[in-house]
Records
---
Amino acid sequence: MAKDTLEREKGVAIIGGGPGGVGCALTLKGLARDRGQDIRVVIYEGKRFGEHYNQCAGVLSHPLEEILEREFGLKIPDAMIQRVIQGYVLYGEKEEIVLEEDPTKPSLAVQRVELDRFLLNEAVKRGVEVIQSRVTDVEFHPHEVVVYSWSGTCRASAVVGAFGLSKAMTACFSRRVGYAPPPHLETLVTKFYPPPSWLPNLLENMIHVFLPPFPRTEFGALIPKGDHITIILAGWNITTNEMETFLSLPKVKRLLPPKGHSDFFKGRFPTGLAKRFYGHRYLLVGDASGLVRPFKGKGINTAVITGKSAAITLMNHGPSQEASLHYRDMCKELMEDMIYGRLARTLASLTRRYSSLDPIIREAKRNEGLKEALFFCVSGHAPYKKILRNKAHLKVLPRLLPHLLGSFHLSRQ
């Protein structure tokens, strides 16, 4: 058998049972079934969903529901949906603006571990093997990949990495194939449990977004969930000190119940593209590839999309180095948008540190084009290329620059 052919008996080993891994597995099974074939697909997942916390905020953005139903025939159970998000409230120093969701394309707040468990169970129903074990190493050979785990050894034609920013797996792939993980922010997450009287309209079912002027903090957000508020803070080397300072801000404090918060959880959030995230007999998807958007991220959406693209590449072109270039091409739109996303993130960071968001918010209250741009930047509902190259958005810059420069001058006094 040619070395660039995907051997059905060996199949594909997928490291990680989140949306990216399951999206890849379901696509592999579906394509094989459409061709009257079968293929072995093994998912390794070290977490026990429901017992271990996931640092993801658990907000499902449009068009994830459509993708799951159209591509996999899956419908998110109504019981899993904790909140229908009505939009965002973006805060400056003194100003704030409400950015409403399109009611026909709402975001949904869920408990992330419940979503992961639901998707993984559906994969099992469709013939995917799930090994509840941590992978410890991966060997690459000309004709196969050997995956080591706490449960033993698996030989596969190819491996798909859907392991997020796992330090163990990023170190493994770095050592084996020269992979470099994407640049990232640290996240710190905690929860507030309000009294029952708050729950029917918790935070008015809006996500509240802040760009606090702390040296090591990039953004903070309050997210209404079923019986609690999830608070997430993102930045560099952030600690509980930064979280406590953020929670003590008057505009944050007034949104929270008087009682304290729960435990803290640490996570990481990609902000750029990984290096060598595809190659001979391996493809990395989701956060491991770095293919997300700044601020909102839409990490679950891009995980599913890149997982599907990896499966199509393997089934149509095989697992060779040359075949992996087809995966790169399928991700081209996401990769190109990274440049514009970095620009948007840099502008936001400069505004946060040296100027003020207030002039932008005041102008957005008068200008629908700028308001739309702010909504797309916060929600991630549109590519940053589209946002930054939109003529209606660019027209407001001449009016904004004097205000921003004035704020910058005052901040230097």
---
Amino acid sequence: MAGPLALRNSVLEAIGNTPAVKLRKLVTRDMADVVVKLEYYNPTGSYKDRMALAMIEGAEASGRLRPGMRVVEYTGGSTGSSLALVCAIKGYAFVPVSSDGFAREKLQTMRVFGADLRIIPSQDGKLTPELFLKMIEVAKKLGQEPNSYYTDQFNNAHAIEGYIAIGNELLAQVGPEIAVFCAGVGTAGMLMGVSRAFQAGETQTKIVALEPSSSPVLTTGKGGPHRVEGIAAGFRPPHLKDGQYHEVRTVDEQEARDMARRLAREEGIFAGISSGLNVVAALQLAREIGRGKTVATVAVDSGLKYLAGDLYET
């Protein structure tokens, strides 16, 4: 891995190797340390850059994606932004299927990178299981057209492989003594990638999957409308495998929103709602396991992606 000051030959080489920081003001003396990996240091401001690069290069290596073809994916915006970046650099046309229920900044970012964005209308801006199913349906049809490659992030094994580096980086930054790692579940690729890295490192880390209490499909089997972008698609993602995580927890959506604001004001971590959700759970776990241990999680993406919405209204 190139050092932080090394000259890169491409923006793609700037993906990964993100910093990890300890929380200082949100923890108390009786709690475990909480470490947050700042994934908004990736080029598009999201850890999805890792997955996008892995899926595209995996398809190239297998021969399923060749020069002159177009790439298709359904996306809440961050995956689409990441794929749009990778495709722009590699010279592929990109057709993302998204919705007006996602942040306007994310939709515009895809267009900036040259994507041919297709929008599926939402119901009052809510993210529902029905909306995700419609996006999937449209993307699948587009992917079946001639000269198209459908990345299919929820079923693409390279998605998990792209995230293993987060676990390896955390082991290098913090060490094998991480007691718990927790994160929200979208595709579950990131959680499973980190779990694989920790298993390979022979750690005893507990892996905790998170979802909003407004869409508790993993805990109750029933999804619902919510506004936590990037997670809780309303169905159990195929990547989420039994035996590779230990527990599922729900987090109140309003607590996640409040925490995103507190992270900015108290810790200088400017991130989105799913990052707030991750930290709410991380602090709960840190309180439960107590001093002398470490809980790790990720700041998924940059708060700059949410300035046009109501998350950071003042």
---
Amino acid sequence: MVLDSLPLNPGDLDWTPLRELGDLTLFENTSPAEVAERVRDADVVYTNKVRVRADALGAASNLKLVSVLATGYDIIDLDAARQQGVTVCNVPAYGTNSVAQTTIALLLELTHHAGAHDAAIRDGQWQRAGFFSFWNYPLVELADKTLLIVGMGAIGSKVAQIATALGMKVSAAQLPGRTASGQAAYPRVPLQEALPQADVISLHTPLTPETRALINAERLSQMKQTALLLNTARGLLVDEAALAEALRDGRIAGYAADVLSTEPPASDNPLFNAPHCNLTPHLSWASFESRQRLMNASVENLRAFLLGKPQNVVS
């Protein structure tokens, strides 16, 4: 049972390898009210962003495996799954290249404003300026700027690698309560010390109770006025109201994100009216190549489970 098939496969991938492993039912999407009924008789459930909570797990007497069509698995009630004897697995690292590429694209948009300058040309502003060269936003060179990575996992490390090639100086944030790893490719600096030094801060840490609203009013006040903030991880890592106020007051220079606190967002999201804010609709994972890797790995998760050798287990 696939609860939300459309994001993974809008029509350019093939479900046949998964169909060969069992009686496959595909739902393009599933509302919260429909989850319990749809998983009731399923042996295996796939979900990308549809939440599977304790009530649904308790009603699914045949359920043996929940495979998340993503890396993040906070949509599953893991305690309830363990109590029910249901294995939960995910797909790590499938989107590393795609998400890192999006992160850099957002950074380049904040520093060179390619989209805004394209719109200015179409509005006739270059033509009216009368010079061979025209710009109406500050242009920022990234070489020798300091990039602070918050969450130096696979994606954060890939972003660091690309940023290094651009001539940036990279450091990793040491979060409160986290133990530093023994071997680190980049210097680790406590977050409160690193924020005032950073020209760019890029968020790549999972959403946990400890990281929810990690970037709040207090931490925004510790950043340079020229600092740029990037978020391709989870929207709830940021206090959006505090961030919007900081952008309006000029306390930081810009924000670019592929994620928001609620998705799809409410029309009154405070960032919609904030200046120097660029948003994309949670697309960083969704290149064709990335989705194909995700499909392949999801099939292998089930194949391994059927062979009695479950992989990528998070429960």
